[in-house]
Amino acid sequence: MKRTNTIKTRFKYIEKIHGFYKGELTIVGGRPGVGKTSFITNIIEDALFFKNQKKNVLLFSLELKSEAMLAEMIRSRSKEVGSKDLLDDNNILKGSLAKRNYVAEEFKKSNIYIDHTCNFSVDEINEKARKLNEKLRSKNKKLDLIAVDYLQLLRGGKEFETRELETKDILKKLKILAIELEVPVIITAQVDRNLLVMECPTIEDYADFIIRIEDYSTYMKSKCMFFRMMKHNVDDIVLPMKFIRKYRCFEHIEI
Description:
Shape: globular
Structural class: alpha/beta
């Protein structure tokens, strides 16, 4: 399998460090409220619209219902839509409601598939992803990105003695899915105060790339997040980011 960065995103510095590759599992970890879900929806938004990529994306939303998740993405996307996109036939700028309707129509025409089912198992996710990929292949297409939000709400394929063993089973199967379908898989996860992913301290054994979002706004005047990125055999790389909570989106802080 050729190792290629299949998803182009607005996060140019992250792409320089690693990117989102076919057959790889990326984990986005952080404490509650730092924007983990917002970050993966930013990635999904870029996969659909950035540089006119029009990728086929499958999102498993284990917490938010499909409508709520879509509303989050519409809010973020509304910030990115420029005024030139919102001119009517008389060249009159439309209002904010028209902008949201415009963006909603964009998503309606896009290639995103959102699946919201409570108490999902990793085997169910794999089965649904394979079925959708086969359906797309019948139309000479394929899945380009799979996202799961989030790890702690996902069950293993069977009963396990400990949650750590169950989590290892989940991550192993998601990694196998990424390789089998030749697609990047991204999953969010809660971390503890020591920035270790809860329930599986050895998570690095399964992930190709880890992005840990740390909230430093308590210690700094600006609303600054640090993205601490780790990949195999490379020291952690820290990247400052700005989280615009109103729009549920991240922006680079130029360095």
